[in-house]
Amino acid sequence: MKFALTALAAVAAASPIFEQETFNSEPGFSLDLNAQRLVQLEGQPPVWMTELDKIKAKAQNIKFFDITDTQDLESFAATSHVKFEFPATPTATDKVTSVIKTLSTKGPRANLEKFSSFRTRYYRSDTGKDSQQWLLSKIQDITKSASSSLKELVNLSEFSHSWGQNSIILSINGSTTPDEVVIVSAHQDSTNMWPFLPAPGADDDGSGTVTILEAYRALVAADFKPERTVQFHWYSAEEGGLLGSQAVAKEYAARSVKVVAMNQFDMTAWVKKGTREEAGIITDFVNEDLTAFNKKLVDTYLDIPYVETKCGYACSDHASWGKAGYASGFTIESSFENSNHYIHSANDRIDISEEFSFTHMLEFSKLAVAFAIELGGWA
User: Fold this and answer.
1) Where does the record place the Peptidase M28 domain (predicted)?
2) Is 241 left (phi over 0), alpha (psi -120 to 50) or beta?
């Protein structure tokens, strides 16, 4: 596949340190730019391209699935997944409100300061693995604070991947219908246009990562014991073509797991100067009924309104679950055109602009809590 010359390619041409043989021996990375990958773009048959071509495509904002290891994922959409109806209106307002009152910006700020301090969380880097292990330890710390009876319901595991940075799955087992699963998710990896450059990824998707982590903390503090199983997922390798979420979705679909719904939180911190503070509700490549329910949750529990917006094909991990035939949705910090323009650069930092807002992130923690309780139930 041929790509037009970009700023990325121009940097490579001008800088000897970006010669391909140097790339392939870069310390701290396990990345072969000549490796062949099967990539699927919107409306086109899959094509083989090199890892370097994938990087060029991403730099041009071309969205794609890397389906090298998940070529049959779409076939599961034709199987008889259980279809669930979503409530006409929220029904657990007292319980949701009691939990969201305990949410704080203190934990997310401290966690994101650390999480974005890794030079990069690129999924094929040593620091990407280190950041994943740090995140795992934070989830473990929160779980240790749970009541003894809640701990018996919690299962924390790593979903192993060949590239080294694993996805993380936290499950609170349901008491009434444990075979039905509600998923709250974010992706933990980050990238720069060249993966070997610094990528603090404070907003993309450090913000979503700590947003749902704060929701989990508040639920643990409230001794939340759901009727359905509620899971929190932190995916690896979203920036590599939704690799981690595709692997997890395929494994769930192969086991015929009854996923009620999954909701992705990717970028939750940015409020563009001069715009109204809003929660972006993605309306393309999502489940319409779940999206309508998400709007009702925003209206009921958030202090800001929603705005409908679109982000395109394969733009985040919800697309993997939709491809597998499950109901998936996606909420983002704003309308897509007003979202953070520093992503995929060394400037995706907490301190780069007053537009980075922890109180805005808190609104999305409210949404994650509401999603978990309203669809998971509370025994």
Assistant:
1) 168-360
2) left
Q: How many residues does the chain have?
A: 379
Cα 366 to chain center, whole Å?
16
Query: Could you report how far apart the first and last alpha carbons of the chain are, in Å?
Result: 53
CA dist., res. 358 & res. 360, Å (int) = 5
Q: In terms of DSSP bridges, do strands 47-50 and 36-41 run parallel, antiparallel, or are they unpaired?
A: antiparallel
Q: Are 353 and 103 in contact (CB under 8 A)?
A: no
> 238, 317, 348, 363: which is the annotated catalytic residue?
238
Q: Is 374 helix (H, G, I), strand (E, B) or coil?
A: helix
Residue 17's pLDDT is 37
DSSP strand pairing (177-187 vs 228-235): parallel
Q: And the tokens for 251?
A: 């494994």
**What is the number of other CB atoms lying within 10 angstroms of the CB of residue 7?**
10
C-beta separation of 302 from 367 below 8 A: yes
What is the distance between the alpha carbons of residues 116 and 190, in angstroms, rounded to a whole number? 9
Choice among 180, 214, 239, 363 that is catalytic? 239
**From the candidates 81, 233, 318, 344, which is the catalytic residue?**
344
Closest CA to 270 of 349, 153, 210: 349
pLDDT value at residue 79: 82
233 belongs to the catalytic site: no
- What is the rounded CA–CA span in Å between residue 52 and residue 58? 10
Among the listed residues 180, 205, 266, 355, the single catalytic one is: 266
Query: What domains can be seen in the chain, in order of their start residue?
Result: 7-66 (no CATH), 73-376 (3.40.630.10)
Answer yes or no: are the C-beta atoms of 168 and 233 closer than 8 Å.
Answer: yes
* Ranges of residues in the chain whose predicted pLDDT is under 50: 1-19, 21-22
Q: Which residue has the tokens 């780069």?
A: 352
pTM score, two decimals?
0.94
State yes or no: is 239 an active-site residue. yes
Q: Nearest CA to 237 among 306, 320, 345?
A: 320
Check if 317 is active-site. Answer: no
How far is it, in rounded angstroms, from Cα 263 to Cα 141?
A: 24
**SS3 assignment, position 55:** helix
Contact of 226 with 175, CB cutoff 8 Å: yes
Contacting residues for 290 by C-beta, under 8 A, at least 6 apart = 86, 261, 263, 327, 328, 329
Whether residue 135 contacts residue 168, with contact meaning beta carbons closer than 8 Å, is answered with yes
